[in-house]
Design a protein that fits this description.
Elements (H helix, E strand, L loop, with lengths): L1 H20 L1 E9 L10 H12 L3 E9 L4 H14 L4 E4 L2 H9 L7 E3 L6 H5 L12 E3 L6 H11 L4 E6 L10 H4 L7 E6 L4 H6 L7 E4 L8 H13 L4 E3 L5 H4 L3 E3 L2 H19 L18 E4 H7 L5 H5 L2 E3 L9 E2 L1 H11 L1 H22 L4 E10 L2 H6 L5 E16 L1 H68 L5 H35 L9 E2 L5 H7 L11 H18 L1 H22 L5 E17 L18 E9 L7 H67 L5 H36 L8 H19 L1
Parallel strand pairs: 1-2, 1-3, 3-4, 4-5, 6-7, 6-8, 8-9, 9-10, 11-12, 13-16
Antiparallel strand pairs: 10-11, 14-15, 15-17, 17-18
Length: about 775
């Protein structure tokens, strides 16, 4: 115990002595903004310096803010030099760094941390990778204006670019038009960023083809920055921003990656400060950042809105974000898509019209038992012989009007036809219901196939980003001699393959979208967006988790299969159509049997009224008999007709036998449908329970693969793992993620397929209907146990 106290006391006294022995080290930082601004290097530079020197020195920071005023920045620099208390001056803003770069003499160590471009490198002794100016060091810029402009010109046919700059930019010793004179075919116009984003937008003329935002927009709030980029996009102009984030989130068209590179600047600045503390001259400090990697990032949502599309080559070499954000106000939810499908689907519309036709067939069958009344008018010309032989009943021209009436009193074929057509109509109504169920399943399948394809595109795009980062790591390791060229080539291969997979996934997404539009009877190429893509909670709402309790073990699964088979026999339109077809065939067979002994009885009546007879023939002359005007007399008749076929070649016998065979055929078909139905239900139920179990397994696999890839990432970065094993780990993770994503959508699709086999969609039912379903199942389960 005493020994432990002595040890602690010695340690405390040693630490206290070290603390008291620390020397003061004064660091002055000059920022371009105000103290209240969010300056991306304000805290990180201080933290890095504290991390490196905090145990050796008592660091005193002095922060000065010029509020974007060049004169104020110059004044602060001179004050720091005159007071001569700072051990190092850091230009932590663009203005201050630019002013420092203009000086030739530095009374104390200076670091220009933020540079607008690599002009310092171009003007310095690049062979020594240093400034070669006593007491002055700078850090390579993560930006490259010329490369930005070059990328912007490759996007489309651009003749004039508007460059948005802050007002202080004009005071810098930097002639950007002269700097960009190598772009001989492009005109440039500097546009001042006003306090109001709308004023800035109004300054962008109609002759501008693209916009380059050469500013961090630090004077704008996030909402103002969004207004600016939204306005540029609404003008259908591509925009490229100096900064990648958050500008891409605000709506910029494109930007080169810079965020990660900017985060490396504070570390380099702190290392330079550490060397200055050791008494080294900044003129010899390295200025280039070997680990800077610029990657073009394209915002596909903005691309779709502007309608200005980069070339395939540009897209293949870029990182894409918002790849699934379509430029459309047409948003689909599952229920909205189903409703639209039932309203517009051509197959369902044809089924509805077929039902209407069946209704008319019933009406036509009934019409045979309704009175038949017909009127007619006839005009005929007769030759002389015909007139003469008519004995005054006809003339050279005869015009008459008549009517006929008939009423079927008894007809077995007509009565059978009415009954059969009613059954056919009811069967067609079931067929319409079948079509409705099929359309719902088709829409659901296409809907979730689209979401599944969306998820695949996102995963493949993320894989491109990861492999691009690993390629950058391999390049950095190769530059410092820590890795070989073979690793670089291997990652280039993997990146190219990942881009090819992404292209395949994108094509698949478009094809599935075309299919969904076709099912909904919309223009095939019409764009749409789906609500909540990839949201697990959304999927859980669709897949009723209470259903899981019904398949918790193999025994419950068998009971549920029996119950669903019984439910399907009651609800499924296909089964009901067979039953109705059997009833119709039985009625036809009965009619064929009755044809042997039931006659057809009808009432008939005819009436004919002569209207005009021209030059009638002579009436016969018979003494004592006066015929009068025979041609003017009306004629009528009425009577009953009863008929029954005696022999018609044996057709009645053959028709009866044929109907009997067709009835047996339908009975066989009914059994086959029952067998097929049970097969589909049991197979679909197995698919659902397998998909549900695989979902959790695939999620576990994805989590384990992520942990593994994180471990291998660190080992590879440290050189303790070869590239082959690392690639295997990453590919395994991608495969696991794809499987986990596919499992979610496959579960929902399988669940809808199961519901289709039972003839009812619980997912779309009301709460009362679902409760009734579970009540019936529990009753069935109880009866089964008994």
């Amino acid at each position: 115990m005493i020994h432990r106290l002595i040890t602690l006391s010695v340690s405390f006294l040693f630490s206290l002595q070290c603390l008291l022995a620390q020397q003061d080290f004064n660091v002055t930082l000059i920022y371009d903004g105000t103290e209240n601004d969010t300056l991306f290097l304000q805290h990180s530079i201080k933290e890095e310096i504290e991390s490196l020197l905090g145990t050796q020195y008592n660091i005193n920071f002095t922060s000065l803010y010029s509020n974007g005023d060049i004169a104020t920045s110059r004044k602060y620099i001179e004050e720091v030099y005159n007071v001569d208390t700072a051990n190092v001056l850091i230009g932590a803003g663009l203005i201050t760094s630019q002013i420092l770069s203009e000086r030739k003499v530095f009374p104390l160590p200076n670091i220009a941390a933020i540079n607008i471009d690599n002009l310092f490198i171009e003007n310095s002794d690049s062979s020594n990778n240093s400034s070669s100016i006593p007491n002055f060091a700078f850090i390579q810029s993560p930006f490259n204006i010329k490369k930005d402009i070059e990328a912007l010109t490759e996007i489309g046919r651009i003749k004039k670019i508007g460059i948005l700059v802050n007002e202080f930019f004009y005071s810098l010793d930097f002639d950007i038009k002269e700097y960009l004179k190598s772009f001989e075919q492009i005109d440039f116009e500097l546009i001042t960023i006003a306090n109001n984003p709308q004023t800035t937008l109004d300054a962008i003329g109609e002759d501008i083809d693209a916009v380059y935002v050469l500013s961090t927009l630090s004077d704008y709030t996030p909402s103002q920055a969004q207004i600016l980029f939204q306005g540029i996009t609404e003008k259908k102009l591509p925009s490229l921003s100096l900064m990648d984030y958050p500008m891409l989130e605000y709506g910029a068209y494109a930007a080169f990656s810079s965020q990660e590179d900017i985060q490396k600047i504070p570390r380099r600045a702190a290392l330079n400060v550490s060397k200055i503390a050791e008494g080294k001259d900044p003129k010899d400090f390295p200025v280039q950042m070997e680990s800077f990697n610029r990657q073009l990032i394209i915002n596909m949502k903005t691309v779709n809105i502007t309608g200005v599309y980069p070339s395939w080559k540009t897209l293949d070499n870029a990182i894409l974000i918002n790849v699934n954000k379509a430029n459309t106000g047409r948003k689909l939810t599952l229920k909205a898509a189903i409703a639209e499908g039932l309203e517009n689907n051509l197959g369902y519309q044809m089924a509805q019209k077929q039902t209407q036709i069946a209704q008319k067939d019933v009406a036509l069958a009934k019409s045979n038992y309704l009175p038949q009344l017909e009127v007619n008018s006839t005009g005929t010309f007769l030759d002389e012989n015909s007139v003469a032989s008519s004995f005054g009943a006809k003339g050279e021209f005869n015009w008459s009007a008549g009517a006929s009436f008939s009423q079927l009193i008894l007809s077995e074929p007509a009565m059978a036809n009415i009954t059969i057509q009613k059954l056919f109509k009811e069967s067609q109504e079931k067929a319409e219901k079948q079509s409705e169920l099929d359309v719902v399943l088709d829409v659901v399948t296409a809907f979730f196939n689209y979401q599944q394809a969306q998820s695949l595109v996102v995963l493949q795009n993320e894989d491109i980003k990861v492999k691009n980062q690993n390629l950058n790591i391999a390049v950095d390791k190769e530059k410092v001699g820590y890795g070989g060229k073979s690793d670089v080539y291997r990652w280039e291969t993997e990146l190219a393959l990942a881009r090819a997979d992404f292209n395949d996934a994108t094509a698949q997404l478009k094809n599935v979208g075309f299919q969904l539009n076709q099912i909904l009877n919309r223009p095939v190429k019409e764009q749409f967006s789906i609500e909540n893509p990839g949201d697990s909670d959304y999927l859980n709402q669709i897949f009723d988790l209470s259903f899981v309790s019904l398949i918790e073990d193999p025994g419950s699964l068998q009971v549920l299969a029996d119950f669903l088979t019984e439910e399907a026999m009651k609800n499924l339109p296909e089964v009901q159509q067979i039953e109705l077809a059997l009833q119709a065939q039985e009625r036809q067979l009965k009619s064929n049997k009755r044809a042997f002994y039931i006659p057809t009885i009808a009432l008939q009546a005819n009436y004919d009224e002569p209207l005009k007879v021209v030059n009638p023939g002579e009436t016969p002359s018979i003494p004592g008999i006066e015929f009068g005007n025979i041609s003017a007399n009306p004629k009528w008749n009425a009577g009953f007709v009863a008929s029954i076929p005696i022999f018609n070649g044996g057709s009645r016998k053959h028709q009866k036998q044929k109907a009997q065979i067709e009835l047996y055929q339908l009975l066989d078909q009914q059994k086959d449908v029952g067998n097929q139905l049970e097969l589909q239900i049991r197979a679909s139920l197995e698919n659902v329970q397998t998909s549900y179990r695989n979902l959790q397994l695939n999620r576990n696999a994805a989590e384990a693969a992520l942990k593994n890839v994180n471990i291998t990432q660190d080992l590879y970065s440290e050189g303790q793992l070869n590239v082959v094993n690392f690639i295997d780990a990453q590919n395994a993770y991608l495969t696991a993620e794809i499987n986990a994503s596919n499992s979610e959508y496959q579960l929902v699709i399988d669940f809808f397929v199961l519901q289709r086999t039972t003839g009812q969609y619980l997912t779309l039912a009301t709460e009362a209907q679902r409760n009734d379903f579970f009540t019936r199942f529990l009753q069935f389960k109880s009866n089964t146990k008994n």
